[in-house]
Amino acid sequence: MRGPVACLLVLVILGVAMAQSPQAAEPPPHEQLNAVLWMQRAPEYRANALQTWRAAMAALPQVTAVGSAALEQESTPAAVLAAMPTAVILDLDETVLDNSVYQAGLIRAGQKFDPASWSSWVQTASSTAIPGALEFVQAARAAGHRVLYVTNRDCLNVPAAAEDRCPQLTATMRNLDLLGFPDALQPDNYFFLGPGLSGRHPARHCVAHRSLRSTVS
């Protein structure tokens, strides 16, 4: 009987010691943790992104019908539309650019999105490309289409005396250029939020371009 009693006594002592030992603090749960891990680690995410962009690339030669994705051009005569140059309009963040490193930083710090930290991240110009996005943009340009980017990045809250009137735009152009995107340094290719504007800046390009119906959003 001494053996089992001794074992039981040891287990009790170990249980008390474990209960009293300090536990490593666990980070609070974050609603985006699983999504960011999946985006950064899952082969399925990369496969899905590549499949989507390659499907869009395969559709480029099929864009021959006269028409436009722009509501403002619904009443434009077909002959006028046909004479316009074409443009592919793409969302920028999480469609062309991967900002999961920024999101991971928020999770590690137990923080939420805020404009100041987002602006700091944008100005690092270190976003990577979503798999397949660069190849699609290169193919679209090779097919003669202009590529325009829509984003909630902004030119707001810039000090009046600042030499650069839109630091986020400057950083974004540099980011895309470093990644090898064609025409990345042309500011008129970007729709940014700007001061005193009801929409994005520059003014809507659909006046001068016929926007193609995109298979990617």
How is the topology of this model organized?
Blueprint: H1 2-20, H2 33-41, H3 43-59, H4 78-83, E1 86-91, E2 97-98, H5 100-109, H6 115-122, E3 128-129, H7 133-142, E4 146-154, H8 167-179, E5 190-193, E6 200-201, E7 210-211
Parallel strand pairs: 1-4, 1-7, 4-5
Antiparallel strand pairs: 2-3, 5-6
Helix pairs in contact: 2-3, 2-5, 3-7
Q: Can you give a write-up of this model?
A:
This protein is an alpha/beta fold and 217 residues long. The protein has a single domain (28-211), classed as Rossmann fold (3-Layer(aba) Sandwich). It is 42% helix and 12% strand. The protein is built from eight helices and seven strands. The chain has a five-stranded mixed β-sheet with strand order 6-5-4-1-7. Strands 2-3 form a two-stranded antiparallel sheet. Strand 4, helix 8 (167-179) and strand 5 (190-193) form a beta-alpha-beta unit. Helix 3 packs parallel to helix 7 (133-142).
Strand order of the largest sheet: 6-5-4-1-7
* Regions with little confidence, pLDDT below 50 for 5+ residues: 5-21, 201-207
**Number of separate helices:** 8
Might you state the CATH topology name?
Rossmann fold
Question: Which CATH architecture would you pick?
Answer: 3-Layer(aba) Sandwich
The CATH class, by name, is Alpha Beta
Radius of gyration: 26 Å
What's the mean pLDDT score?
80
CATH superfamily: HAD superfamily/HAD-like
